[in-house]
Write a structure and sequence with these properties.
Elements (H helix, E strand, L loop, with lengths): L6 E9 L6 H15 L3 E7 L6 H11 L3 E5 L6 H11 L2 E6 L11 H8 L4 E6 L6 H18 L11 E4 H6 L10 H7 L4 E6 L13 H21 L10
Parallel strand pairs: 1-2, 1-4, 2-3, 5-7
Antiparallel strand pairs: 4-6, 5-6
Length: 241
């Protein structure tokens, strides 16, 4: 990630086949930031979309100098898209969202209030507007994730997060690790809080998640995180001479 911070806020958003949501996403963020701050950027990372999303992203970047984009040569997955976006971001605070409009940038002030005393704040989606299969798989994934990782995060999969730049600079990402941002931050000594936020039905496009990639792949990654926690170097120097 670049060393110089040019903005107070950087929105980093992976995009994969979300053409019909992009203009609404842009309007949602820009409208919310009228109240919060005019010192921000939006970093859109096109993760190999095949539906024309990149064309719309390019038009938004021409329309607004605070919109920046990266285009990956193929679909690498959300962790890689986040990693590329984080490295390109210039903000003191990093905000993550999905492009599906199921969370609202207008809820960001709720997270910022907690950020005064924590390094990372993530949302807890209230009254989830998902189908039954997604709701059940999400609940199971959260339960298993917390049980095996020793965490008590209520909604680690919530896409709306805000964290201090130095937190993500300390973390080395591997494929699938975007699901475990709170745990990775804690391993580096950063503090994490959660706050309730709104949740909305998806308007356009299809969810990229299913039981296979939500449970089975995540379970494999979870064992990797559990191993990392058990082997992590953690010591305190009490005297030096």
């Amino acid at each position: 990630m670049n060393l110089v911070s040019m903005y107070n806020y950087s929105f980093v958003i992976p995009i994969y086949n979300e053409r019909d949501n992009l203009l609404l996403l842009y309007e949602n963020i820009t409208d919310a930031m009228k109240i919060i701050s005019n010192d921000y950027e939006i970093v859109l990372v096109d993760d190999g979309s095949t539906d024309g999303s990149l064309d719309i992203i390019q038009k938004l970047a021409k329309l607004d100098i605070n919109v920046h984009f990266l285009s990956l040569d193929r679909n690498y997955g959300q962790t890689a898209a986040f990693d590329a976006g984080f490295k390109a971001a210039h903000g003191k605070l990093i905000v993550t969202m999905d492009a599906d409009l199921q969370v609202d940038a207008h809820d960001l002030p709720l997270l910022l209030e907690k950020l005064a005393t924590h390094d990372c704040v993530i949302g807890i989606r209230q009254k989830r507007s998902d189908n039954l299969i997604k709701l059940i798989s999400s609940k199971i994934a959260n339960f298993v994730r917390n049980k095996l990782s020793g965490e008590q995060i209520q909604d680690t999969g919530c896409p709306l997060k805000v964290f201090k730049r130095e937190a993500i600079q300390k973390v080395k990402l591997f494929n699938g690790m975007h699901r475990f941002f709170p745990t990775l931050f804690k391993l580096e000594g950063f503090t994490v809080a959660e706050v309730p936020i709104h949740h909305y039905p998806r308007r356009y496009g299809k969810s990229k998640y299913n039981v296979r990639n939500r449970l089975f792949r995540a379970l494999r990654d979870l064992f990797a995180v559990r191993w990392m926690k058990s082997r992590y170097l953690n010591y305190f120097i009490i005297q030096k001479g």
